[in-house]
Amino acid sequence: EPLEEDLHARLIHSYIEEENLAAAKAQYQKCTTLMYQESGVLPSKRLRRLYQRIQEQAGQIAATDLETIQELLDREEESEGAYFCDPESFQRLYQLERKRMVRSQSPAVLVRIEMTKPDLSAPSPSDLQRCREQLHTILQRTLRRGDVVCRWSDTQYLLLLPTASTGDTPSIIARVKERYNHADQGQIVLKFRERAIQPEDAPLPQTGKNI
């Protein structure tokens, strides 16, 4: 039963208990890849918790202050809206989406959100933190289930929008902008750039579009 999540989860748990983290991570990747390719299903809360245990046990989580740790734990409890993940997981999902598009021919879009001051100078750390908190909430409430979000750097977020075309993207971005402008009272603006994702066997587009 290759699509039976419970069997994969039990095996991953056993590998973790044996401290065989390489095998646990390989099984997680095999399971999530298979389920996404065959059914378009993103990792469940149970599987994400197991992956977090692998990261914790391997010492890969860099967060040390309580607020950051709590934000990470709370994020794992979210069940509605977009799926938030780390850059490594985002890259895997992006690559899987390109593979899946070969069969499905369904469109998808990659969006970059950059946080900057109007004069393009670097925002202060405190302003960035406040902006990230607001943007996280807005993206969670605005995007669809199945959309994928990651914080790519201190000033950038990436969005993976499956089944969305470049014609759909302006309305999605407009909703994010409107809610951010309504909520934000600071000095940070959001700049968006989008480009269509191409199937794995197609060349990548040369240019994207600013919105």
Structural account:
- The protein is an alpha+beta fold and 211 residues long.
- The chain is built from 7 helices and 6 strands.
- The protein has helices at 5-17, 21-39, 45-57, 66-76, 87-104, 125-142, 169-183, and strands at 83-85, 108-116, 148-151, 156-162, 189-196, 209-210.
- Strands 1-3-4-2-5-6 form a 6-stranded mixed beta sheet, sandwiched between helices.
- A hairpin with a 4-residue loop joins strand 3 and strand 4.
- Helix 1 (5-17) runs parallel beside helix 3.
Q: How are the SSEs placed, and which strands pair?
A:
Layout: H1 5-17, H2 21-39, H3 45-57, H4 66-76, E1 83-85, H5 87-104, E2 108-116, H6 125-142, E3 148-151, E4 156-162, H7 169-183, E5 189-196, E6 209-210
Parallel strand pairs: 1-3
Antiparallel strand pairs: 2-4, 2-5, 3-4, 5-6
Strand order of the largest sheet: 1-3-4-2-5-6
Structural class estimated from helices and strands: alpha+beta
pLDDT < 50 runs, ≥5 residues:
none
Helix content range of the residues, please? 40-55%
Largest sheet: 6 strands, mixed
Q: Sketch the topology as an H/E string, one letter per element.
A: HHHHEHEHEEHEE
Summed over residues and divided by their number, the pLDDT gives a mean of 83
Give the tally of β-strands: 6
Overall geometry comes to globular
* Helical run tally: 7
What's the end-to-end separation, in Å? 45 Å
Q: Measured on Cα atoms, how large is the radius of gyration?
A: 18 Å
